[in-house]
Design brief:
By secondary structure, the protein is mainly alpha-helical. It contains 18 helices and no strands. Helix 8 packs antiparallel against helix 14. Bound molecules: tryptophan.
Length: about 450
């Protein structure tokens, strides 16, 4: 990542570093919290299927496009899009929209991350009392006023401090050790969940699609989730692409990131849904699904309360990598373009995120719970506006820049660097970026708006 001193741009030292940093951005609450929650609210397996198709046909190609643009320009997102096509500075709009998306996403993301952090001491306290955290505990936390705000402010301050100090390298080192541990703990949860009586219904819910459930809004949620989980459509992956070593083979690296990210989501789903069904709960549990289910799985294991705490510690670590990558987008721009020091840039960005974040957090409780815009509270509005509108629109714009405006030899040439596989592969990928990906995004967007009727 970037060094705090001077203008020298740091580059990930190794291919492994490039992979772990990108995975660190991709894997976070999107996998552990949002994937199960949206799958449950959108009817199960059909949504999962649509989501997987979106990752393969849209997510992966857009990630490749972002990495190629970032590495070609070696600039922050605003300047990268403003300079990649000579004479067409207006495309910097992608970067500007990305700054807005970063703030909107962080506004609700840090609320949820705050719940994750809060669940660490809460799990330990519940264990000491000999009880298990339940929906009433979650409701009191998420629907509270000062408690969630303090956690959220703490999470934002922590992220800003990490980004400001330019110590992301240290964070990456920690992440590299703890992410595999999260993976192992998820597998432990899965084994326990899958052996609960009645677990089979949860597995069927996740993997037996009922295609009549694929309505326009469900498809758009699946597409939005693919963008969100892979950190696409707003410049994060462009910025990370700008730190990629020249020797990194862009497409295979992106494919591995998408695979790892998908694997973690499926593992999370396999912990949640069998448990939900075994305990007779409802899969459409909304944003509280994770928090109400994980303590239940562990309640059926020795020392469960302590493992619940460990689970939330590891999830908290995963959220930090994702939040750092979100905050890096405005901070990279403020420090490179506006020549602001990184601590100042971090403080300013953090303040903006907290301002909107308070709206998101308070909209779940008595203070702003009554305020609805387009039928949504602030939390849902920020989530919807970013994942389902800004990121897919950003994806179309990125596909236009990489597929149509950038000379084909430059785009494919970037993908060919270090690549020794079949020639046709990168050319085909560029074709998907040019035609299939933007058309699919446009169709899904128009379809959900009712302008085009497919489903
Ligand atoms: N992908 C992360 C997650 O799944 C969240 C995230 C990080 C993100 N950077 C992003 C989402 C950029 C959208 C855009 O938790």
């Amino acid at each position: 990542m970037r060094s705090p001193q001077g203008q020298g741009r740091d580059i990930f030292a190794t291919g492994i570093g490039a992979f772990t940093a990108t995975v660190g951005s991709a894997i976070g609450l999107g996998n552990i919290w949002k994937f199960p929650y949206l799958t449950g609210s959108n009817g199960g397996a059909a949504f999962v299927l649509a989501y997987l198709a979106c990752v393969a046909l849209v997510g992966l190609p857009i990630m490749v496009a972002e990495h190629a643009i970032g590495r070609r320009t070696r600039l922050n997102a605003v300047q990268a899009y403003g300079s990649i096509i000579p004479g067409k500075r207006a495309w910097s709009v992608i970067g500007w929209a990305g700054l807005l998306s970063a703030v909107l996403i962080m506004a609700f993301y840090t609320d949820v991350a705050g719940w994750v952090f809060a669940y660490v001491p809460k799990s330990i306290a519940a264990f000491a009392r000999g009880s298990v955290l339940g929906p009433a505990d979650f409701g009191a936390l998420a629907g509270g006023t000062w408690e969630p705000i303090l956690w959220q402010a703490g999470v934002i301050a922590l992220t800003a401090a990490i980004v400001a100090a330019g110590v992301s390298k240290g964070i990456e080192r920690v992440t590299k050790v703890l992410m595999p541990l999260l993976f192992v703990l998820l597998v432990v949860c899965d084994v326990r969940a899958l052996t609960l009586p009645g677990a089979g219904a949860g597995v069927a819910y996740l993997f037996t699609p009922d295609l009549t459930k694929l309505t326009g809004p469900v498809l758009l949620s699946a597409l939005g989730l693919a963008f969100f989980k892979l950190s696409l459509g707003m410049g994060t992956m462009t910025t990370y692409g700008s730190y990629l070593p020249a020797a990194t083979r862009i497409a295979p690296n992106a494919a591995r990131v998408a695979l790892a990210d998908t694997a973690v989501s499926i593992l999370a789903g396999l912990a949640i849904f069998p448990t939900v069904f075994a305990f007779g709960g409802a899969p459409a549990g909304g944003p509280g699904l994770l928090f109400n289910t994980i303590p239940l799985v562990f309640s059926k294991m020795p020392l469960g309360g302590l493992f619940t705490a460990l689970f939330f510690v590891l999830t908290a670590v995963a959220t930090i990598g994702a939040m750092v990558s979100l905050m890096e987008v405005p901070v990279a721009w403020l420090s490179e373009k506006a020549k602001m020091s990184r601590p100042r840039a971090g403080a300013l960005t953090g303040a903006a995120m907290l301002a909107l974040g308070l709206l998101a957090t308070l909209s779940q409780g008595p203070v702003l719970g009554g305020v609805k815009i387009l039928g949504k509270n602030f939390f849902d509005l920020f989530d919807y506006a970013s994942s389902n509108l800004l990121l897919p629109l950003g994806g179309i714009a990125i596909a236009i820049v990489a597929g149509w405006l950038l000379a084909r030899k430059d785009f494919v040439g970037e993908l060919d660097k270090g690549y020794r596989g079949p020639r046709a592969f990168n050319a085909a990928l560029a074709g998907i970026v040019k035609f299939l990906a933007p058309v699919l995004i446009a169709v899904i967007l128009l379809n959900s708006l009712g302008i085009l009727r497919l489903a």
